[in-house]
Amino acid sequence: MQKKYSFTQIKSICKEQGYKLACLENAEGERIVPNNAIKINVHKHIAFIQSRLKNEIFQDGVYYVCLSHNINSSRNPDRYPIVKGKLNDNTSVQRQPEVIVQTHAESVLSWDQALAMQKEISDLKSELAKFKYENNELAKKVEELESELDELEDEEGLKEPVQKTGLEQGIEFLKESAPMFDSVLTKYFDLKERELSLKEKGHISNSNTHDEKKTKTEHRRVKIDPGSENHIAQIRHYHSQNNEDRLNEELDKLEEANPELYKQLCEELGLES
Q1: How many Cβ atoms are within 10 Å of 196's Cβ, its own excluded?
Q2: What angle do CA 54, 58, 64 make, to 5 degrees?
Q3: DSSP string covering 47-86, please?
Q4: Could you count the other beta carbons within 10 Å of the beta carbon of residue 81?
């Protein structure tokens, strides 16, 4: 028989395990109370769930308090069953009915459909080969830049890591737009930032000072307006990367600029506004 928990036990477990997010689901896996926002204390949210479950609209039975440590793990949380009211001996956790898929003769592809599917597969293979080639070229470029920077650091005797510049937002947006090149793009632009920082500190000589100042100015102009498409993409990226600090910072900007859009996005991401 599956162990059941009380809210007192769940609160104690939450404290011991360091959970940050909590939500409530019924026996069918339907979410009744969504996860709290990161900035909301999880223990207060559990108290809200306990109060919410007392409502008469919820029938007696088994429910699940789902706990997780961060936004990523909330997609597959730890589920702790609790009981509302009294259960009969015959009461058990309901399960989703098994879905049986039957294949009928009319589902067989026609000759034209088979050819079309074969062409689509061939096109996808070609596109994949193209991506692999581009990925290899970027990897080579990264290796070249790493080698150049190593030589520069050896010559100048740099001991402290170069801090990131204003290109960080641009890098994050590129990660959102092209996730398959995430690691390569990160290394490439990190190296470019370090190279620019070295130029700013005067470790790299450049006779054309006008072009250098122009390049610095252009990089400092990277700005994303709150509520814009780029800003929404950036928030989704921080959510997928579990970057809680940056996520909360950008959500606050969005809430101030466009409260309605803020509420819609919180609902979409499963966060409590």
Answers
A1: 19
A2: 85
A3: HHHHHHHTSTTSPSEEEEEEEESSTTGGGS-EEEEEEES-
A4: 14
- In terms of residues, how long is the chain? 273
Which residue type does 76 have? N
Q: Any idea what DSSP says for residue 158?
A: -
The CA distance from 62 to 59, in Å, is 9
CB proximity list for 255: less than 8 A, separation 6 or greater: 262, 273
Global confidence as pTM:
0.35
**Are residues 200 and 164 in contact, defined by beta-carbon separation less than 8 angstroms?**
no
DSSP symbol at 181: G
Helix boundaries (H) for 157-240 = 168-177, 182-200, 209-220, 229-240
Q: What are the pLDDT digits (tens) for 219-264?
A: 444 578 888 888 888 888 888 888 888 888 898 898 899 998 888 8
Q: What b-and-e string marks burial along 152-177, b requiring 16 or more CB atoms within 10 Å of the CB?
A: eeeeeeeeeebeebebebebbbbbbe
Task: Output the CA angle 267-272-66, nearest 5 degrees.
Answer: 100
195: Cβ contacts below 8 Å, ≥ 6 apart: 145, 148, 149, 152, 204
- What are the extents of the domains in the chain? 7-84, 111-204, 224-273
Task: For the chain, give the mean pLDDT.
Answer: 76
